[in-house]
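User: Show me a protein chain along with its predicted structure.
Assistant: Here is one chain, sequence first, then structure tokens.
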Amino acid sequence: MQVIQEDNSTFQDDFKQAKKRLKKQQKQLLFRRIMRNRGIVIGGSTMIFLSLFALFGPLIVSYDPYEMIVTDRLKAPGGDYLLGTDNFGRDLLTRMAYGARVSLSVGLSVALLSCLLGMIIGLLASYFRSLDNILMRICDGLMAIPGVLLAIALVAALGPKKENVIIALTIVFIPNVARVVRSAAIVVREETYIEAIRAQGAKTWRIIVLHIAPNTVAPLVVQASFIFADAIITEAALSFLGAGIPAPDPSWGNILHDGKVVIFTAWWMTVFPGILIVLSVLGLNLLGDGIRDYIDPHTTK
């Protein structure tokens, strides 16, 4: 009897060690697969750099983003001002660091809100046929209007304010998310196991929340990265046109707006914030493509 117990304890120890080795190997395989994905590596590194710049940049710079030194207006890069000054004598690097917080926070907020609300609308439209036509026709109507024009109209109605810009851009991007979620949810709804769960008497909301919604997360994550990038561009466009983040609050679009008047004499006011916008959009698009290829390797060319 004692020999049997010793054998059982030895077997359990071996099983635990084998389980630990398997988990370690799975983590290593996951890490290697991620590192082989250039989109995730390059896009993720770019967004980490910009996030660190937004978080710690304002703590490192020594100037106030609102302090105007008229005698130092339009100073070229170098000396006390690493990236030069704007047409009001404000340090450009400081403005860009604080503007990174605004632009990235607007993009992230829009991506999260539009994905959450779009997911709800898409799930409702996919499961309840009576709501499908109503919700999708509303989405079609919103998608028929160019995004920038719709955002300008909404901001003009709500007022130029950061929160209102987020609301306006969220409304612009909700229809795209709703259509993506609806398409994925309709496929899942027709699966045999959903019919079996429904036949067992499961409640509607339980089926939607626990069985259909999780299967729409993968395409939703990819869509969120693209919406993040689109929101940054659209916010910059609104601010450039004077309909976005109100002055004197810094944002990349506001800096471009101030620089358009002196573009031939102070090129740094448009080049440097433009580079940050390009880097953020490029990084997010690469990250989205990488996540898509990671989730579904069959999409890799």
